[in-house]
Specification:
Layout: H1 4-30, H2 32-55, H3 64-91, H4 94-101, H5 104-115, H6 122-139, H7 154-179, H8 197-220, H9 235-262, H10 265-272, H11 275-278, H12 280-285, H13 293-311
Length: about 300
């Protein structure tokens, strides 16, 4: 299918918009730590069921090299990277964190060039720069209304955001490396790659879940467990966590892996970074945020960049 990689990346970006909205709602009630732990468990269960229905087994038969690459991708990208991102949101605030995270596509392209020998044309580079510039323009002044709010450690928060961006970039590159054929005898005859995107997403989530649980235990044990909000779980909270899991760790990760399987990793990362643009109308409707003119200018610039990446 033509443009399958580009369409999958844009769809993944849209999925993360939905995830951000519903999980933020749930997190206000039960706390972010509970939300993260529950969504990881649900995601693994859903992906396991999907894998069983699609391939008839609960664990894919893959070579050791692919398994190691996907394990690294899950731990660094989904566990460590997300942990740094979470700390950055607390220490530096969402505006600066989101702005720093726009460096993910550039870091991904650099790492992919070194490890995967991927190269980009001048049009690709221009499209990436326009897309990222548009995102930066759109979010640079967002949150100005709360500019007086003091975040505890802005500098260290920015560093954490950069480390989170690096973690996501490394995770994407190792995911693509793990999906490439290694042993011809175990390649699924229905697919061109050694590991299908669904199997890769499942493996990444399992190892990412193990890593996240280890980090969670270190975070909570023994002193900080009492500081966590009391859980007031009800149907609406569970529904929000379930919806956020389906659209984020399940569909979002799966679509992202389909994208990097079909197009260059740096381009895929750029298209998947459009969530700050896509979320603007939802922020206006559901969060009652005031959308400033720079947001529309940034969205227009990003659309031009996306058009260059997709249509050139």
């Amino acid at each position: 299918m033509q443009y399958i990689g580009e369409i999958s990346a844009l769809a993944a970006s849209a999925c993360w918009v939905i995830t951000a909205l519903v999980l933020a709602s749930a997190g206000r009630v039960v706390g972010a730590t509970v939300v993260n732990a529950v969504r990881i468990f649900i995601a693994i269960c859903i992906l396991c069921l999907m894998h069983l229905l699609a391939y008839g087994n609960i664990w894919p038969e893959i070579d050791q090299f692919s398994l190691v690459c996907l394990a690294i991708s899950g731990v660094i990208g989904l566990a460590i990277g997300d942990q740094f991102l979470y700390r950055a949101l607390i220490d530096a605030g969402p505006r600066l964190t989101t702005l720093v995270m726009t460096s993910t596509p550039a870091l991904t392209a650099i790492i992919a060039f070194a490890l995967l020998d991927e190269t980009l044309s001048y049009v690709d580079v221009l499209g990436m720069l326009l897309t990222l510039a548009g995102i930066a323009i759109a979010i640079l002044n967002r949150g100005e209304k709360n500019a007086h709010k003091k975040y505890p450690r802005v500098k260290i928060g920015v560093l954490f955001a950069l480390l989170g961006s690096l973690g996501q970039a490394i995770g994407l590159v190792f995911a693509k490396l793990g999906m490439e054929p290694y042993d011809p005898d175990i390649v699924n005859t229905l697919h061109q790659s050694g590991v299908t995107p669904l199997s890769a997403a499942y493996i990444r989530m399992c190892f990412g879940g193990v890593g996240a649980m280890v980090l969670l235990l270190f975070y909570l044990f023994p002193k900080k467990a009492q500081s966590e909000k009391k859980c007031r779980v009800n149907f609406s909270v569970f529904f929000c966590i379930l919806a956020g899991t389906i659209f984020g760790p399940v569909l979002g990760v799966w679509l992202g892996l389909i994208s990097i399987e079909n197009i260059d990793t740096g381009i895929a990362a750029t298209l998947m970074s459009l969530s700050p643009i896509m979320i603007l109308p939802f922020a206006k409707i559901f969060e009652k945020e005031k959308i400033k003119p720079n947001a529309f200018i940034g969205a227009f610039v990003s659309i031009i960049g996306v058009a260059l990446l997709v249509l050139h």
